[in-house]
Structure formats: structure tokens, C-alpha cells
Amino acid sequence: MNHEPSILVIDDQIDNYEVIEAFLYGQGYTLHYASSGERIFETLDIVQPDVILLDLMMPGTDGLEVCRQIRMYPKWSAVPIIIVTALTAKEDLYSCLQAGADDFISKPVHKLELLARTQSLLRIKQQYDTMQSLLQSKENTIRLLQNSFDEMRSSIAHSISHEFNTPMNGIIAPIEMLIADNEIMSAQDRIELLELVNISGNHLNHLVQNFLTYSQLELINADPERVKSIRADLTKTAIQPIVEYTARAQAKYFNRSSDLVLQIDTGHISIRRKDLEKIVEELVNNAFKFSCAGSQVQVVGRQLKDQYELIISNVGTGLKTSQIAKISTFVQYGRKQNEQDGMGLGLAIVSQTLKIYDGAVHIIAETDQKISAIVTLPSL
Questions:
Q1: Which residue among 2, 136, 259, 314 is least packed, with the fewest CB closer than 10 Å?
Q2: Which of 146-160, 205-219, 287-301 reaches the highest mean pLDDT?
Q3: C-beta neighbour count of 296 within 10 angstroms
Q4: Distance between CA atoms of 7 and 118, rounded to whole angstroms?
């Protein structure tokens, strides 16, 4: 950054700010303090922060609500927000991310963790600003393109900064800290930083693997001979055990096994096991991701006359018909409102996979809140 990075600390306890100030002293940052989230946009206009450290538990407007308010305005949507919280339950941390936070730090604040996360978020913000500057220089050209392309471009730019935020944050900065402070660092500090690297590396690997999967599927579908070869080697696949096992694994991942409802008819289809698993994984993952704990996620399998139909339904944020029509490879529906993880690749992977087998997926908004993904595959 050309200017000294600005960090805004929002906390009703001045003592907490003084601790953070002491930890960040000498790092080349300009720190600002706000005792509450009231009139937050006036504060943002004055401070122009590059990173926000936001306390979760505050009287009046709490941290989650402040985070939601900030994320409602495009002007501030790219400013990284770190929630500082004493809560450790998964559902509480999930609420922070759902409100639009980029990361969180547990209380009591650990100096190394604070430095690592802050440095990475500042680096990512710089990359985002650079990208925005480049995109702005091409604005005249972009205006000549169709509206759908403009939406895709915006989604890709946001995905790069937001979706890779957490894994990059947890890899780059801890490694730099290990290199810089190895001689004075305790064994416990090293373990904590390496754990951050491990978790974030797995997350990043998942994102990369989805990109590779989608690219491979596009190449397959562009080559009729490859599609023909795959179909020629197929054998009967029993659909019920695969769907049930994969769906239960996703429910367990979200700690929502009691929310899963399975009604799977027995039947056989011609499909590679790994492809069926991926279809179910992506659709059930989305169903849990875009619904609240306590609400049902239904997976229904029906053997029809000449095809097998798989229906994955959830009650959550809702989706309008106009939004369904805009779903594409890099456009995740409701992104600005929901701030969920994922680059919109899940549905694209499902769609490309089904093409190989003459199948299809349709997204249906049954009510204002209920969404169903309907998969059809030719049955044997």
C-alpha cells in the first residue's frame, strides 16, 4: 500500500483497544478507535480503514449487526473484518462468517495470531485494491459487454478476494512469522501457527480441486469421443447406498445430522461412483450451507418409468425465479446478501457432470423460502 495501513478497532472496552495497540505497536499501522457501532458509516468515512477489528459482544448494536450493516454497502464490502470474540462454539463462529466477517480471533487475543491474521488481510486488501484499479481502467470496454458478463466479472473479482481470503490468511502470514521469529518463538507458538497452516491448506486445496474438476469436465464434454468412451465402460450403480452415505457425511460435517431427512428409492443407473458422490456432495452441501440449523434438508430419490429423479430441498434464504436464471459458473446466488463460502462452482460441476450421462439439474423456487435442486438421470 502506498499509505500507512489504517486499522479501525470497534470495542466498547478501551482496555481491549489498548491491548491490541500494544500488540501492533511498531508494525507501521495507524490505529483508530470507536467505542460502539453507532453511526458506523460516519466513522468509516473519516477513518477509511484497511482492516476492521470488531468486538462481538457490545451493548446496543452488537458486533454481528455492525458487520451486517457494513456488508450492506458496496463501498465497504471489500474491507476485511476480523471478529474478536470470547465465543468458541461452532454455531457462534458460523454466525460471524454468515454475517460477513472474513475471519475471527478468540479472546484472550494472542499476539502472534493477531499479527498473522492482520498482515494477511492487509495483503489481500492490497491485492483487491490493485485488482479494482485495473478493472476501473477497463470500465469503458466493460460497458460494451452484456450485463451478464459484467455480473460475472464482478463475481470473479469478489471471489478472488473473499473466497481465498481465509486460506491465504492462514498460510502466508504464519509461515512468515515462523521464518522471522523462529529463534525467539516457543514450541507452543510454532504448533499454533502450523495448525493454522494445516487447516487453511486443506481449505485451499478443496477450492483448487473444484477448479480442476470443473476444467476437466469441460474438456470431457467438449470431446464426444471421451464422453462415448466413459459411457462404454459403465456398469450398473446402486444409487441408494451412495446417496445416503454421501448425504449423511455432509450432514455430519455441518453438525446437523438431525436435520437430514432421507427418502431414497432403490434403483440402478449407469454412472461412475465418484461422479454420483460429487453430485450429491455439492448439492447437499449447498442445501446445508444456505439453510439454518434446525431446518430440514430433504433428499428424496424416486424411481420413475425411464429415469431416476433425485430432489434435494432446503428452507433457507430463498431464491427468486429471476435469480435462478442468472446462475452461472462463477455467480453464486444471493452472494451480497448471504456472504456464504463457495465460488458458485458447485452447480456448474453438477451440471457438467450430468451432461456426460444425458442427465440434467434444475433449480426450483417452490416458495419464497424453499429451494429444490432436481437431478434427473436415465435409469436402467
A1: 2
A2: 287-301
A3: 14
A4: 9
Whether residue 235 contacts residue 256, with contact meaning beta carbons closer than 8 Å, is answered with: no
Give the span between the Cα atoms of 67 and 82, in whole angstroms.
10
- Pair type for strands 297-303 and 307-315: antiparallel
Long-range contacts made by residues 360-367, C-beta under 8 angstroms, separation at least 24?
Answer: 361/279, 361/283, 363/319, 363/324, 363/327, 364/324, 365/318, 365/319, 365/320, 365/321, 365/324, 366/313, 367/318
Average pLDDT value for the chain: 81
Task: Among 34-48, 82-96, 314-328, name the most confident range.
Answer: 34-48
- Is the pLDDT at 67 greater than 70? The verdict is yes
Write out pLDDT tens, residues 134-149. Answer: 776 666 555 554 554 4
Q: Residue 242: what pLDDT?
A: 95
β partners of residue 164:
none
- Residue 291, exposed/middle/buried by CB under 10 A (0-12, 13-18, 19+)? buried
Q: How would you class 334 by CB atoms within 10 Å of its CB: exposed for 0-12, middle for 13-18, buried for 19 or more?
A: middle
Check residue 291 and report its DSSP letter: B
- Angstrom distance (rounded) from CA 330 to CA 348: 8
pLDDT of residue 190: 87
CA 240 to each of CA 127, 251, 301: distance values in angstroms, whole numbers, following the listed order: 46, 16, 8
Order the strands of the 297-303 sheet from edge to edge: 260-264, 297-303, 307-315, 370-378, 360-365
First to last CA, the chain: 60
Furthest-apart CA atoms within the chain: distance in Å = 71
How far is C-alpha 43 from the chain's CA centre?
A: 28
How many CA atoms, within 13 angstroms, populate the side-chain half-sphere of residue 279?
A: 33
The predicted model scores a pTM of 0.53
Q: Are 57 and 14 in contact (CB under 8 A)?
A: no
